[in-house]
Amino acid sequence: MKYLQKLRLIFTYYRNFIWVSVFIDLACAFILWKNGIDTYSALFWFKLFTLGASIYFTNEYRKEEYFYFYNFGLSKKGLWISTIILDMLIFFGLMVLSYNLRAIFTIY
Asked: For the chain, which residues make up each domain, given as ranges?
């Protein structure tokens, strides 16, 4: 039960910027689908840059929320590590999906 509660709290924290993150991931997937694998390195660095910007703005404008999560036993570092891992998994998944769809649609 404790792990399920922590996972739900992590998703609650990630909900603050999931829409921006998923929009950037989908835009990167579309660019990869249109331009091919040559653009992957630029898209990866763009994703890291926007992730850094979201970390900065979240730390700057929502720093009071960390007390809520700290009361449940989640540290600031733990929140960010888990959300970065989740965000990068979504990014890599969409990149693989986009690349495979490009390969399928260019054959036919």
From this structure: 2-107
